[in-house]
Amino acid sequence: MKLRVSSIDTFYGTSHILHGVSLEVGEGEVFAVLGRNGAGKTTLLRSITGINPPRRGAIFLDETDITRLKPHERTRLGVSYVPQGREIIPDITVAENIFVALIGKGRKHDKVPDLVFEYFPALRPLLDKKGGVLSGGQQQQLAIARALVQEPQLLLMDEPTEGLQPSVVEEIDQIINRIPRERHCTVLLVEQNLDFVRYVANRFAILDTGRIVAKGNIKDLTEELAHRYLVG
Amino acid sequence: MFTQSIITQFFNGFSVVAILIIAAVGLAIIFGVAGVINMAHGEFMMIGAYVAAVVDKLGGNTLLAIPVSFAVVGALGLLVERSIIRWIYHRPLETLLATWGVGIILQTIVKLIFGPELYYVGTPKFLAGGFRLIGRLPFPWYRLFLIIVAAALMALVFYVIFHTDLGLQVRAVRRNRAIASCLGIDTARVDMTIFVFGSGLAGVAGAVLAPIKSVSTTMGFPYAVDSYMVLVLGGVGNLWGVVAGASLIGEAETILSFVFNNVIGELLVFLFIVIVIRIVPKGIFGYYERR
């Protein structure tokens, strides 16, 4: 599934966060959005999910204009979201967190799909535990699993390794690297970790104070660019 | 003798608790899930009671009135939600004023149709009379029936919330509306369904309370006030809040009214509520929601 964001302006209340942001992510690509804290990366993803729809501009999935659609309608068209901070629903079980995702997609939900254990075998013994008692790494696995069971065509991931232990980060990185090939989905990833981005992404864009200041092929992501917009 | 009387009052209190649960549960789930304080809750109950009066006139009894009131008031809830509430969710002041207005309109419409006179609904024949409790004080069968209805309604609500797809969606939406929506849950539909379900429960409350109270356009108000007190005391984070709030208020009011008198009893209960919410502002089972 192709994603086209066409000069969107997004606001948080009265603050103007995104200024005329445009980008295109091709079918099957892994596209990374980089930028400092507060650059508007999360807002960009929230504009695409529909939590914070843009006030101006348009967003297309393939040729469908989704700018005015509600989040759940976008999900049904194939968008799944792994939010920043994981946002596991804490007072329902791990299995129920997955069932919610299946119900949302109008799928059968009598059992947790095997797909979950294929990627995250560690979740199997945790199915009856409440989401809130999981460790950060386990919650991240659940957040990704929750998105994968929806068989997304466009997967949005917001800093999936933020705040996790280095050993866990490596494991999650490897799985994220497998997803686009094995699940045949397009990925739009927000990330701070340059090494990881170079490892998984085909293309990138850099956001700075709500504007895209650089984009290109991943090999064009030079140290000079990184230094200017990402470090310090 | 005094102890025995207190025990009898304690059992009498059960039926008051039951009435409070029946009246409050619909309000509780609408407030707990959709965040709407339905000021027309008393009027929804009143309409449920008028439906019971009509069913009674046509030869039916309370058992028939329960599903009919659920359907009629549920449909009314759907109408109110679709035409008014859905535009003003998450704006507490507007929903308060709008539902208050709805309440006034409903009272007027019912008065126009049924006139100002009181209606009486008989108890079903098989529930007439009563039995004797310890202390040989009479305990009407209908009060026992109310206790059973309260237990059944709580069981129904627990079942819906914890054992159905709708309930799972409700729990997800309540906890994190934005993320539930991104997971594909149509949150507006969940709100609507819960509003209709809660309205239907208000209808059932009216239907079963009709035989113990004369049916009039203003009959719902005191029950609505009691329901708000139950929610304030019990908190809306948890269905047990309804049970806890209703139990404390119902028993305290019954026993204190017996020991002192009605006025002092009620006063002490109010004082108790003030003290409790001073200590736990969100109520006994309240919780802090993350948006």
Note the topology.
The complex is a heterodimer of chains A (232) and B (291).
Chain A: E1 3-12, E2 15-25, E3 30-34, H1 41-49, E4 56-61, E5 64-65, H2 71-77, E6 79-82, H3 94-104, H4 114-119, H5 136-148, E7 154-158, H6 166-183, E8 186-190, H7 194-200, E9 203-208, E10 211-217, H8 223-229
Parallel strand pairs in A: 3-8, 3-9, 6-7, 7-8
Antiparallel strand pairs in A: 1-2, 1-4, 4-5, 9-10
Helix pairs in contact in A: 3-5, 5-6
Chain B: H1 2-34, H2 41-57, H3 62-83, H4 92-114, E1 130-132, E2 138-140, H5 141-163, H6 165-175, H7 177-182, H8 187-209, H9 220-234, H10 239-259, H11 262-279
Antiparallel strand pairs in B: 1-2
What is the structure about, briefly put?
The complex is a heterodimer of chains A (232) and B (291). Chain A has 232 residues and is an alpha/beta fold.
Structure characterization notes:
The complex is a heterodimer of chains A (232) and B (291). In chain A, α6 links the parallel β7 and β8. Chain A has a single domain (3-229), classed as 3-Layer(aba) Sandwich (Rossmann fold), CATH 3.40.50.300. In chain A, α3 runs parallel beside α5 and α5 packs parallel to α6 (166-183). With 232 residues, chain A is α/β, with parallel strands linked by helices. Chain A has helices spanning 41-49, 71-77, 94-104, 114-119, 136-148, 166-183, 194-200, 223-229; strands at 3-12, 15-25, 30-34, 56-61, 64-65, 79-82, 154-158, 186-190, 203-208, 211-217. In chain A, strands 6-7-8-3-9-10 form a 6-stranded mixed beta sheet, sandwiched between helices. Chain B has one domain: ABC transporter involved in vitamin B12 uptake, BtuC. Chain B has a two-stranded antiparallel ribbon with strand order 1-2. The longest helix of chain B is centred in the N-terminal third of the chain and has 33 residues, at 2-34. Classes of the chains: A alpha/beta (232), B mainly alpha (291). Chains A and B meet through α2 and α3 of A and α6 and α7 of B.
